[in-house]
Amino acid sequence: MTEFFVQSIIKKLIERSMHIVFAESCTAGLVSDAIVQIPGASQVFWGSFITYSTDAKVKSLGIDPQLIERFGAVSEECALAMARGAREKSGADLAVSVTGLAGPEGDGSSVPVGTVWIALEGKDLPPRAVRYQFSGSRSEIRELATDRVIKKLADVLETA
Fold first, then answer.
1. Residue 122 bridge partners (DSSP)
2. Cα distance between the two ends of the chain
3. Mode of pairing for the β-strands spanning 94-100 and 20-24
4. pLDDT by residue (tens digit) across 116-151?
5. Of 7, 71, 103, 135, which residue has the fewest beta carbons closer than 10 angstroms?
6. Cα–Cα dist 158/102, whole Å
7. Nearest-CA neighbor of 92 among 25, 153, 18?
8. What's the CA angle centered on 79, arms 24 and 51, to 5 degrees?
9. Burial 70-94 (b: 16+ CB within 10 A, else e)
10. What is the tens place of the pLDDT at every residue in 7-60?
């Protein structure tokens, strides 16, 4: 099922001569891997930033550490900043970020395990972020988040 959506994403990006970049935290490259599994991805995929740690988010994407301190790494604000940073650093037309808490334990904050934020930002797309709450094992949450990123991106490209 995911393959169908990824093919659709690549087709739409090729038609629009757009390049995409990802900033992944909890999925740690799973979204990027799903994209590059499909022939033609090299025409549209700029690359990705795997920013699992707070330090990586700050150093690789230029996120203000005070933003993470104030709102947390698993927040709307952080997801939006990740997408913006990835787009600015890469020059890609469209950026997608995903940050979340896959568990099995919490991170000491009030954010429940399974919380995932997905954000998109593009040259003709206002920044937007959506929160999801998944359940399951760590692996299942990461896979569910990856699937949701792909489906959300396909939907946005279909309606934009």
1. 94, 125
2. 22
3. parallel
4. 999 999 988 899 999 999 999 999 999 999 999 999
5. 135
6. 29
7. 18
8. 30
9. eebbbbbbbbbbbbbbbbebbebbb
10. 999 999 999 999 999 999 999 999 999 999 999 999 999 999 999 999 999 999
